[in-house]
Design goal:
Strand order of the largest sheet of chain A: 2-1-5-3-4
Radius of gyration of chain A: 15 Å
Structural class of chain B: alpha+beta
Largest sheet of chain A: 5 strands, mixed
Mean pLDDT of chain B: 96
Strand order of the largest sheet of chain B: 3-5-1-12-9-10-11
Radius of gyration of chain B: 28 Å
Oligomer: heterodimer
Strand content of chain B: 15-25%
Structural class of chain A: alpha+beta
CATH architecture of the largest domain in chain A: Roll
CATH class of the largest domain in chain A: Alpha Beta
CATH class of the largest domain in chain B: Alpha Beta
Strand content of chain A: 15-25%
CATH topology of the largest domain in chain B: Aldehyde Oxidoreductase, domain 4
Distance between the termini of chain A: 33 Å
Shape of chain B: globular
Low-confidence stretches of chain A: none
Shape of chain A: globular
Largest interface: A-B, 58 and 59 residues
Distance between the termini of chain B: 66 Å
Number of helices of chain A: 5
Order of helices and strands of chain A: EEHEEEHHHH
Chain lengths: ~160, ~800
């Protein structure tokens, strides 16, 4: 039996009939067609599917679509505003915080919540907060630098996305 | 405008041109692709390590709603084995059908493909395929594969031996050991690793009935190689009717070089069902089926004089190849390993003996470094063990044996001729970043407080920029290892470059643009780099073995040289000068020494396509193709150091500092090279401390089959890395570039393990046979250790 769901993704209302078992990440990728959210594992370890759900960084592979009923969701595609990169996106670019780019959307959105919790994070705080996101290319060095860059450049301003 | 004189981009850390799409979620990975009429595939795989297939019953599965087709190995008539692309003289090459027909030989071996209207339907139906298995005994352990009574995996390979191979001078080595006053002997296990690129493998295969064209999008490091192997060797379909596209690829580390079962089966099946098919690996499937790395068991002996000169090195290695020969598997534990055993040291004699064995495990092939990490680990571990035996400092022993600085060639005792090297200089640079004497003093003090602090070094060498075709051909490669580069100058002076190498994180779109913008003196925004499409690119061998900048870059450089030569003729004609008197400076063709008598690049480009006033007999157009085949490998080297603290009570190792000095020759983009080093070092530390594929003896199950069980390094497990470089350009290629993709992985593992051993030395520990040095293994080692000397008593 299918269920109807309605939610807002990147400011746009989405409503579909979905199977109860459909994971939110597959809904976002396959039904809505936003492929920036990636699937890197099947055990909720890698964090490539991290999105913002009602302002919280969430692994979209751990949520059923029907659980997101009425939610306000931001994916990587919705982070830049009016063509202007979010400071975290800019930080990843400035500091070479990515190589293959596959983990990057999830990293950026995990960093988004990290910087809401700790606007001026220590290196240890950054590393600890990124524990749920795996990267195989960068050895994390430049990801830490990218988030530090974002922190410095967001100083005073609010993160921007809720 | 960037020009050769005022704003050289070569050597500058410019931001990556590919990043805007990745940081906004606009990359195009294979699984992102959606085509009209798309179907979705799931594979039925063996749950057993070794089992005969009595019968496959697909009736129930076929009746599942949404199922389009189900095929088993028996349906794939006229399809050949997946080929092995590197042959050794006595190599046993067993059949490797894309879908196992009679026998499955590892957990994950595919036996059927289920194709359906949705991914869910395919997965559900796959569970309804009933396979009647006749389970057989299996063997997974490297050291037991050739034992008497071990399960026999292939008829063609008695005792599961795929090959025996040796290199060096056995008699000279035996003689050196006979008279050596000091001999150190260790067993060293280089455990099996899983590459774990963050993007799982995937493919989309689309056959177009009306034209007979097949397009395969696939997570490949080398789309032309994929096409060649698949068309010429397996499916027997015409190469020119197949286009292979490797779009954005999320990391490879070697695991995406090889032709795998799944894309082959999908390419075959799309021709049967005449609809596109998408398959994307789950992570669980990736653990079971992506070619794995390393897996050596080695007995190594080092013969030393009392003064510390290396008299001989004797190596006996058993290399686990898994259940089948993956595409380049035989090359890894032989020519990419044995030939590197000379390290950076003068050695009296070397002999290595390698036996490759089949087991009921996932096939093993190249993983970042491929053979060179195994060699470097062996040498750098045994040299520190040798120093301990001589009671000599580890750096003193290294310096006593370093090959002295050379600029053009050093013949090793294991076939290779190194290009250029200055090994002492890299270590000198490292020691400017690390106060070694002070460290040893502090270490002594902290030991007195019961702390276990250690330092380990690695002065490594590797062979990359792969590779001279003639040489590898004589060693068994079934392919050439040149690279192609096409430079197309458009009528408006804009430039498109087509490279046969492929970026899956390396940043080709940036580095190659830097090279081209510099050499042509055009703005970097006027240059585009195209890679990963056999429909656009002449040919290509792809990206692995740190070859893109050195081999691929040189091919592009050669085409630019040809463009300049042709441009001189066109400009000379316009200026009524002789082509011999022309030079190309600052983006214009000018009469030598007369910048005022010049034709700009754009005007030459336009003239080439609108040849009204044009040299007699010269072809219109401005596009050049080059294939560059290197004359030798290149040999990056360096010195790494790692400082660790071991928790005595838990066995947990914390990396306190990691310092890397690498010499990769000339560097186009230091930011990108640093990033490569960081990632490589992380993987090397990962091998030393956490990673390892474990198969259960008996059942043959991969018990580290998910990211919950296989410990990939996380952000909070790693330090910031301290990196620097020395620059010793190679003379092998005109760019002086050696290659930077694998140095970190090769260097880091021994540095970390040496550091842990150094930390544990007061407890009487001088060796740990097997990695990873997980808390459990280190704790057990501490418990079993017999205290040596006073230092350990002072806790």
């Amino acid at each position: 039996m299918k269920h109807s769901v309605k939610m807002t993704i990147n400011g746009q209302t989405q409503s579909h009939e979905v199977e109860p078992r459909l994971l939110l990440v597959h809904y976002i990728r396959e039904t809505v067609g936003l492929t920036g959210t990636h699937v890197g594992c099947d055990t909720s370890q890698c964090g490539a599917c991290t999105i913002l759900m009602n302002g919280q960084a969430v692994k979209a592979c751990t949520v059923f679509t029907v659980q997101a009923e009425g939610a306000k969701i931001t994916t990587i595609e919705g982070l830049a505003k009016n063509g202007e990169l979010h400071p975290i996106q800019q930080g990843f670019w400035e500091k070479h915080g990515l190589q293959c780019g596959f983990c990057t959307p999830g990293m950026i959105l995990a960093a988004h919540q990290l910087l809401e919790r700790y606007p001026k994070p220590s290196e240890d705080q950054i590393r600890h907060q990124l524990e749920g996101n795996l990267c195989r290319c960068t050895g994390y060095h430049n990801i830490v630098k990218a988030i530090q860059w974002a922190s410095e450049n967001m100083a005073g301003a609010k993160a921007g996305v809720k | 405008m960037a020009t050769a004189t005022d704003a050289r981009l070569f050597g500058k850390s410019i931001k990556r041109r590919e990043d805007p799409r990745f940081i906004t979620g606009k990359g195009h990975y294979t699984d992102d692709l959606k085509l009209a009429g798309m179907t979705y595939a799931a594979f039925v795989r063996s749950p057993h390590a070794h089992a005969k297939i009595r019968k496959i019953d697909v009736a129930k599965a076929s009746a599942h709603p949404g199922v389009v087709a189900i095929f088993t190995g028996k349906d794939m008539t006229g399809v050949n084995s997946l080929p092995c692309g590197w042959l050794l003289p006595d190599l046993k090459v067993p059949p490797h059908p894309p879908l196992a027909v009679d026998t499955a030989r590892y957990v994950g071996d595919p036996v059927a493909i289920v194709i359906a209207e949705s991914q869910d339907a395919a997965l559900d139906a796959a569970e309804k395929v009933k396979v009647d298995w006749d389970v057989r005994p299996s063997v997974t352990a490297t050291g037991k594969a050739a034992d008497k009574g071990a399960a026999q995996i292939h008829e063609v390979a008695p005792s599961n031996v795929a090959f025996t191979w040796q290199i060096g001078d056995a008699a000279a080595t035996d003689a050196a050991f006979k008279s050596a006053p000091v001999v150190v002997k260790k067993r060293i296990v280089n455990q099996r690793l899983v590459a774990n690129a963050m993007e799982p493998r995937a493919c989309v295969a689309r056959y177009e009935d009306a034209t007979g064209d097949l397009t395969l999008w696939v997570t490949s490091q080398n789309p032309h190689v994929h096409r060649l192997l698949m068309t010429a060797f397996v499916l027997g379909i015409p190469e020119h009717k197949v286009r292979v596209i490797a779009p954005d690829v999320g990391g490879g580390f070697g695991s995406k070089i090889f032709l795998y079962n799944e894309e082959t089966v999908c390419s075959w099946a799309t021709r049967r069902i005449k609809r596109p098919i998408r398959w994307t690996s789950t992570r669980r499937e990736a653990f079971q089926t992506d070619a794995q790395g390393r897996d050596h068991v080695t007995d190594v002996e080092l013969a030393l004089s009392r003064e510390g000169k290396i008299l001989g090195l004797r190596v006996k290695t058993v290399a686990n190849l898994g259940a089948y020969l993956s595409t380049f598997a035989p090359a890894v534990p032989t020519y990419l390993y044995g030939t590197l055993l000379n390290g950076v040291y003068e050695m009296g004699a070397i002999h290595a003996d390698v036996t490759g064995v089949f087991t009921n495990t996932t096939p093993v092939d190249a993983y970042r470094g491929a053979g060179r990490p195994e060699a470097a680990y062996l040498i750098e571990r045994i040299i520190e063990a040798g120093a301990a035996a001589l009671k000599m400092d580890v750096l003193e022993l290294r310096r006593k044996n370093f090959i002295p600085k050379f600029a053009d060639g050093y013949q090793t005792k294991v076939a290779l001729s190194y290009d250029s090297g200055n090994y002492g200089a890299a270590l000198d640079r490292l020691l400017t970043m690390l106060d070694y004497k002070k460290f040893r003093t502090e270490q002594e003090a902290s030991r007195k407080q019961g702390k276990l602090i250690g330092i380990g070094f690695s002065t490594y060498i590797e062979a990359c920029s792969i590779a001279p075709s003639k040489v590898v051909g004589s060693l068994g490669a079934q392919a050439g290892l040149y690279e192609s580069g096409i430079v197309r100058v458009h009528p408006t002076g804009k430039v498109t470059v087509f490279t046969g190498s492929h970026s899956h994180g390396q940043g080709h779109e940036t580095t190659f643009s830097q090279l081209v913008a510099d050499e042509l003196g055009v703005p970097i925004d006027d240059v585009d780099i195209v890679h990963g499409d056999t429909g656009a690119i002449a040919f290509g061998m792809g990206t692995y073995g740190s070859r893109s900048a050195s081999v691929g870059g040189t091919a592009i450089h050669m085409s630019i040289e040809k463009i300049k030569e042709k441009g001189k003729k066109i400009a000379a004609h316009l200026l009524e000068a002789s082509p011999k008197d022309m030079e190309y400076v600052n983006g214009q063709f000018q009469v030598k020494g007369f910048p005022g008598k010049a034709v700009p690049f754009g005007q030459v480009a336009l003239t080439a396509y609108v040849p009204h006033n044009y040299p007699e007999g010269l072809e219109p157009g401005l596009e050049e193709t080059s294939f560059y085949d290197p004359s030798n490998f290149c040999f990056p080297f360096g010195a790494h150091a790692c400082v660790v603290e071991v928790d005595r009570d838990t066995g947990k190792v914390k990396v306190l500092r990691y310092i890397a000095v690498d010499d990769v020759g000339n560097v186009i983009n230091p930011m990108i090279v640093d990033g490569m080093v960081h990632g490589g070092v992380a993987q090397g530390i990962g091998q030393a401390l956490w990673e390892g594929a474990v198969y259960e003896d008996g059942s043959g199950q991969l018990v580290t089959g998910t990211m919950m069980d296989y410990a990939l390094p996380k952000a909070d497990m790693l330090p910031m890395y301290e990196t620097d470089r020395t620059v010793t350009p190679t003379l092998v290629n005109p760019l002086g570039i050696k290659g930077a993709g694998e140095t970190g992985t090769i260097a880091a593992t021994p540095a970390v393990v040496n550091a842990v051993i150094d930390a544990l030395r007061p407890l009487g520990v001088d060796h740990i046979e097997t990695m990873p040095l997980s808390p459990e293994r280190v704790w057990k080692t501490i418990q079993a250790a017999k205290p040596a000397g006073a230092a350990s008593q002072k806790r």
